[in-house]
Amino acid sequence: MRNLFVVLGDQLDAASQALAELDPRRDAVLMMEVDEEATYVKQHKHRLVLFFAAMRHFRDALRDAGWTVHYTEVDDRLNRGSFARELPRWIGKLRPSAVRVRQPGDHRVLRSLEEACASRKVPLEVVEDDHFLCPLDAFREWRAGRKVIVLEHFYRWMRRREDILMEGSKPETGRWNYDADNRSPWKKGTSIPTLPVHRYDALTKQVMTMVDARYADHPGETSTFSLPVTRAQALRDLEAFLTERLPTFGVYQDAMPEGEPFVFHSRLSSALNLHLLSAREVVGGALAAYRDGGAPIAAVEGFVRQVLGWRELVRGIYWVEMPAYAGLNALDARVPVPDVFWTGETEMRCVADAMKNVLTHGYAHHIQRLMVLGLYGLLLGVDPYALHEWHMALYADAIDWVSLPNVLGMSQYADGGIVGTKPYAATGKYIKRMSTYCKTCRFRPEQRVGDDACPMTTLYWDFLLRNRKRLAGNTRMRMQLKNVERLKDAEAKAIRAHARKLRQPSGASGLA
Ligand code: FAD
Ligand code: DLZ
Fold first, then answer.
1. Residue 188 pLDDT > 50
2. What is the pTM assigned to this prediction?
3. Ligand 1 mutation target, pool 275, 370, 392, 402, most atoms within 8 A of CB
4. Quick check: 165 and 171 in contact, CB under 8 A?
């Protein structure tokens, strides 16, 4: 055998250039289910069903297309349980001249593959992953010339590079960005289309049974699993989003109606991150909807900005900044992940609803991630890497390259301003404006102290008091810090004391 081509669980893309460059007569594919990936953080059952079922379907599709696919299932008797130990077993058995893999989505996995190949003295070739629109070398070049990273700069560069919504070097509608049109609070009575329901075949059901038995004590229930595990299912989800949800995606992008897990979001992240869908076709679909008059520019541009802008940007940042990035903790946050992040039990309606989504679906939409759970972690001072590990455990769409910059960078500001220019710190008043939670919540967002005070509000002021020296050099924080300086000593003392109470195991945070 010439090349042994390793396909990882998040690389299920049959149209990849890397596969096209191989010869099915001389090269073979290897896919490994390994227990370590399911247990290094105790993963949600939806995440496990998603990966194992999608991998097994992809194996069968490759075999049908004429590929030799060597495959090890997680409960195979000979399976050694980790990439570091399983890959050497296959190299010993198959004796390839080289092992080839697309850039993995996780620095830790890349190191494991490198060590495994070195132990067997076989070269490992890591090739570009053409699922992504921005090759890593191009990103490095873009990054090299800049002091600070600004999404808008990267996004415009990508729009020009890909010639998307452009007329020459100018945006075709005269505006780069419709962000300001995409922040409407929720309007009561707005009806939300339901997501497609997938019929799962025997193979997927078999995986569910295996996950129930083998990972019984992991969070989540397989009975509520509803994600696509094949390309055909992913394409159905894409089509349903483009026709039914995209037109309203922009308007309610930041809205949080209670009891609505998906609002008008696409819920395409897991299909994208496993590469069942390509970034190019998802962006292309949205652009086609605009051209056909199916969706307005504000919605389409807003969606394109997420996929072409944010998604590509955080991936670039991950690979340029790793491995040092994982250890950053600019605000010296050391609090353990609170119990409520595992149980969802709290009187805070916002946290309870977001956690319900996470525990039921392995999903929460962006604003719940950033401005409810992320905000709560930031204000409590939760250890940012521990929060990232929690995220990797509970979200079906989490891959290291995307979770780490979003959790540690965007939501916790632990990178000191690489992903975002300032901490996303806010009081409960932000949540009141953008959600329906506060209507049924016993806490008052306007109140800083006292039994009825919204914990987000108390903790916001406490956060600024604790971090004012660290944030003093940040010009974008000037206004917020000025307000802190206006607090009287007695007020500041009362806030700090109330915040300490909230952090007790019996406090609203449920820290234990
Ligand atoms: P939509 O709202 O419909 O957005 C469309 C697509 O844009 C998404 O599917 C996603 O591919 C992309 N996108 C949007 N924002 C981002 C972003 N900030 N970074 C990367 N891609 C983006 N996204 C993940 O895919 N995996 C994660 O593990 C993840 N962790 C996050 C953690 C935190 C704390 C935050 C604030 C954001 C995180 N995101 C993550 C980004 C974003 O929240 C999710 O992509 C989105 O909520 C997924 O739901 P959706 O498919 O319905 O997205
Ligand atoms: C998340 C996950 C799980 C649960 N299981 C596997 C697996 O058995 N085999 C595999 O190749 N990948 C798995 N993954 C994804 C990895 O944890 C990791 O995100 C990717 O390998 C990064 O490219």
1. yes
2. 0.97
3. 402
4. yes
CA 29 to chain centre: 28
Torsions phi, psi for 69 (to 5 deg): -120, 115
The helix or strand, by DSSP H or E, that contains position 102, with its residue range, turns out to be: strand 98-102
Question: What residues contact 74, with CB distance under 8 A and at least 6 apart?
Answer: 33, 34, 35, 38, 52, 210, 214
The rounded Å distance from CA 449 to ligand 1 centre is 34
**pLDDT value, residue 185:** 87
Other C-beta atoms closer than 10 Å to the C-beta of 281 total 15
When pLDDT is cut at 50, 70 and 90, the band that residue 512 belongs to is very low
Instruction: List, as one string, the DSSP characters of 428-452.
Output: HHHHHHHBSGGGG-SSBTT--SSTT
Predicted pLDDT of residue 507: 64
50-85 burial code (b ≥16 CB/10 A, e <16):
bbbbbbbbbbebbeeeebebebbbbeeeebbbbbbe
Distance CA 461, CA 498 (A): 11
Using the predicted structure, report yes or no on whether residue 1 has a pLDDT greater than 80.
no
Tokens describing residue 193: 């289309």
Q: Give the Cα separation of 243 and 286 in Å (integer).
A: 9
For residue 406, pLDDT over 60 is answered with yes
pLDDT confidence band for 436 (50 / 70 / 90): very high
Q: Which of 68, 38, 70 is nearest to 52 (CA)?
A: 38
Q: Ligand 2 mean position to 419 CA, how many Å?
A: 25
What does the alpha-carbon distance between residue 59 and residue 177 come to, in Å, rounded to a whole number?
41
- In whole angstroms, give the CA distance from residue 13 to residue 276: 6
Q: Which atom of ligand 1 is nearest to the CA of 411?
A: 34
Residue 510 pLDDT: 53
For residue 196, say if its preceding peptide bond is cis, omega within 30 degrees of 0: no
3-state secondary structure (DSSP) of residue 61: helix
**C-alpha neighbours within 13 Å on the C-beta side of residue 236:** 13
Q: Which pLDDT band holds residue 509 (cuts at 50, 70, 90)?
A: low
Tokens 């009561």 identify what position?
Answer: 188
Q: Kindly give the distance from the C-alpha atom of residue 269 to the centroid of ligand 2, in angstroms, as a whole number.
A: 16
Spatial separation of the C-alpha atoms in residues 155 and 160, rounded to whole Å: 9
* Radius of gyration from C-alpha coordinates of the chain: 23
